[in-house]
Amino acid sequence: MLNSVNLIGRLTRKPEMKYTPNGIAVGNVNLAVNRAYLNQEGKREADFIQVIAWKKLIENAATHLDKGSLISVEARIQTRSYENNEGKKVFVTEIVADKIHYLDTKGKGNNSSNNNNSNNNTSYDNNDPFAGSDPFADNLPDDDGLPF
Predict the structure, then answer these.
(1) 5-11 and 25-38 strand pairing
(2) What does each C-alpha distance from 139 to 126, 134, 142 come to in angstroms?
(3) Is 0.85 topped by the overall pTM?
(4) Phi, psi at residue 61, to the nearest 5°?
(5) How many CA atoms lie within 13 A of 99 on its CB side?
(6) Could you report the per-residue pLDDT of 118-130, keeping only the tens digit for each?
(7) 81 forms bridges with which residues in the sheet?
(8) How far apart are CA 136 and CA 32, in angstroms?
(9) What is the CATH number of domain 5-145?
(10) Alpha carbon of residue 62 to chain centroid
(11) I need a surface site. Which of 32, 53, 112, 148 has the fewest CB within 10 A?
(12) pLDDT tens across 66-125, in order?
């Protein structure tokens, strides 16, 4: 079985974080994700996607990211249901983050005047062997070295 969602987009606002009654951090990151095609007017449209993050993922995002930050999210789709105030059963589909990778340095704490955190521009998943690497580093040879 596979339940995997991968998104790359810019934050539409600063991540929102709160704590459950048990003291567990939870919050949302809201992404604007460009569609892969142009509309009839030749303009690129975007989808606005809310992603739920828990514990250290949201704590770090709330500390280091701001509106406009470019991030990559590895997530899963989760469903649940509850009974509302009118007694009706409500079904909810959510995107829950497993990993968040910071792809640029626009976020809070990533500028040169506030660079005390050694985890800037990284992934906040402890199992990520590529944490701290730049996924978009331009390591391609010049045009003369390309076979096409």
Answers:
(1) antiparallel
(2) 26, 10, 9
(3) no
(4) -65, -45
(5) 19
(6) 344 444 444 444 4
(7) 91
(8) 19
(9) 2.40.50.140
(10) 11
(11) 148
(12) 999 999 999 999 999 999 999 999 999 999 999 999 998 654 444 333 333 334 444 444
For residue 49, the one-letter residue type is I
| Domain residue ranges in the chain | 5-145
As a three-state string, the secondary structure of the chain is CCCCEEEEEEECCCCEEEECCCCCEEEEEEEEEEEEEECCCCCEEEEEEEEEEEHHHHHHHHHHCCCCCEEEEEEEEEEEEEECCCCCEEEEEEEEEEEEEECCCCCCCCCHHHCCCCCCCCECCCCCCCCCCCCCCCCCCCHHHCCC
Q: Please choose, from the candidates 13, 20, 4, the residue with its C-alpha nearest in 3D space to the C-alpha of residue 97.
A: 4
Q: Under 8 Å CB-to-CB from 57, ≥6 apart: which residues?
A: 97, 99, 100, 124, 125
Task: Specify whether the CB–CB gap between 123 and 65 falls below 8 A.
Answer: no
Which residue type occupies 10?
R
Greatest alpha-carbon pair distance for the chain in Å reads 68
- Partners of residue 54 on adjacent β-strands: 26
Residue in the structure block whose two tokens are 């828990």: 54
Considering Cα of 82, then 85, then 87, then 93, what sign does the dihedral take? negative
